[in-house]
C-alpha cells in the first residue's frame, strides 16, 4: 500500500496498469459505499419527514464530501505516482507526467508512453530495471542436491 504513494524509482508496465486500476476502482467503490449508506439514509429520512429536496443533517453531507474529497485526492496521487515512476522507467523526468493536463493529447500520450512502450533495459539514473530480479532476491539461494547424494543411504551404527 505504501508503494502506491511513492514518487521515486521505477515500475513496469504491468504495475502501471495495476496501479491505474487500483487508483480508479478503490476510490469509486469507497464513494459508492459511503453515498449508498449515508446518502440514501439521509434521503429516506427526508422523505419520512416530508422535507424532500433539503439536505437532512449537515453532518452527513459534510462527511460525504470529506470522504469523496479524500478518495479523489488519493486517486490523483496514485495516478501521478504511477506516471512519474513509469516515466522514470523510460529514463525521463517525472515532470513529463504534467503532460496529462493537455486535453486529449495528454491522455493519449500517457497511455502510449506509460502503458504501451517498453522501459529502459537495465539500470538507469532512476534505479534498477523493475523486470530483472533484485539484488535481495538473488542473494537467496536454494541448496542443490546431486543425484549421488540422493542415492546415498546413511549408515546406521
Describe the structure.
With 157 residues, the chain is an all-alpha fold. The protein has one domain (2-120). It contains five helices and no strands. Residues 135-142 have low confidence and may be disordered.
Topology of this structure?
Blueprint: H1 13-49, H2 58-89, H3 105-116, H4 135-138, H5 147-151
Helix pairs in contact: 1-2
- Give the overall pLDDT as a whole number: 78
The quaternary state of the protein chains shown equals single chain
Largest sheet: none
Q: Which regions contain 5 or more consecutive residues with pLDDT less than 50?
A: 135-142
Strand tally is 0
Structural features:
5 helices, mainly alpha, 157 residues, 0% strand
The gist of it:
With 157 residues, the protein is mainly alpha-helical. The protein has helices spanning 13-49, 58-89, 105-116, 135-138, 147-151.
Amino acid at each position: 500500500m505504501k508503494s502506491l504513494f511513492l514518487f521515486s524509482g521505477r515500475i513496469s508496465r504491468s504495475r502501471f496498469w495495476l496501479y491505474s486500476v487500483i487508483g480508479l476502482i478503490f476510490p469509486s467503490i469507497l464513494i459508492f459505499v459511503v453515498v449508498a449508506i449515508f446518502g440514501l439514509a439521509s434521503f429516506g429520512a427526508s422523505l419520512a419527514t416530508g422535507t424532500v429536496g433539503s439536505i437532512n443533517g449537515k453532518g452527513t453531507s459534510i462527511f460525504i464530501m470529506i470522504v469523496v474529497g479524500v478518495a479523489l485526492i488519493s486517486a490523483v496521487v496514485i495516478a501521478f505516482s504511477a506516471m512519474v515512476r513509469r516515466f522514470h522507467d523510460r529514463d525521463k523526468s517525472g515532470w513529463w507526467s504534467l503532460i496529462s493536463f493537455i486535453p486529449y493529447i495528454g491522455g493519449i500520450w500517457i497511455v502510449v508512453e506509460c502503458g504501451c512502450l517498453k522501459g529502459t533495459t537495465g539500470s538507469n539514473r532512476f534505479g534498477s530495471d523493475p523486470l530483472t530480479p533484485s539484488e535481495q532476491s538473488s542473494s537467496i539461494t536454494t541448496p542443490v542436491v546431486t543425484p549421488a547424494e540422493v542415492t546415498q543411504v546413511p549408515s546406521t551404527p
